Amino acid sequence: MIQVTKASGQLEALSLDKIRSSLTRAGANEEIIDKILLKLKPKLYDKISTREIYQEVFSSFPRYSLKPALMQLGPSGYPFEKFIGQLFTARGYQTQTRQIIQGKCVSHEVDVVAEKPGQRLVIECKFHNRPGTKTEIKDALYTQARFEDIAAAAPGKYAQIWLVTNTQLTSQAIAYGRCKNMGLLAWRYPAGESIEKLIDRFNLYYFLKLGYSEK
């Protein structure tokens, strides 16, 4: 039986049930817990410290729970908009959320404006909190129509429109977005630069744990 070294220096028998309970309190479901414990077991050795165990456990936890954590940025879309502002800040932009921009025909409330020297982006965020929902062609059409009105009022001021979502995009939404030179950021898209990859690259798990006010 593996013994673990507590912070006091005392030894006690390893209890996977204690680890399971800690993960449950942190919000992990049974499927996530089983995956984390499966990854942990080969790394256990006699007299391992409890600190090392929990560092390993909770370094794995955010990655397994990322998709549900994104869906908990609600119920409205505003917390997700603020999170996307943080993501683009991590990419080197200065960002503002919920900006009113005058178009040629009407004014528009823009979710995020991201700017760095020589480039200003308009970002439309589509947040969904129901598993299985996808962001569809109608969302891409709506996003492009708004951008065309904004661009017509100030030619050359805004470099590109982005459609950002916490879910997958339909194939039609991707095809239309690419045809219109839209920036697209979604779950598993684009390959290697998808929303979950960027969250991991810039270590933005903290902001998901922090959460955001609806105000």
UniProtKB/TrEMBL annotation:
Domain of life of the source: Bacteria
| PROSITE patterns, sorted | ATP_CONE (PS51161)
Q: Does the keyword Membrane apply?
A: no
Q: Which UniProt keywords apply?
A: ATP-binding, Nucleotide-binding
* GO MF annotations in UniProt: ATP binding; DNA binding; endonuclease activity
ATP-cone domain residues are 2-98
* InterPro entries to which the protein is assigned, alphabetical: ATP-cone_dom, Restrct_endonuc-II-like, Restrct_endonuc_IV_Mrr, tRNA_endonuc-like_dom_sf
* A GO biological process held by the record: DNA restriction-modification system
Q: What is this protein called?
A: ATPase
Write down the species: Candidatus Beckwithbacteria bacterium CG23_combo_of_CG06-09_8_20_14_all_47_9
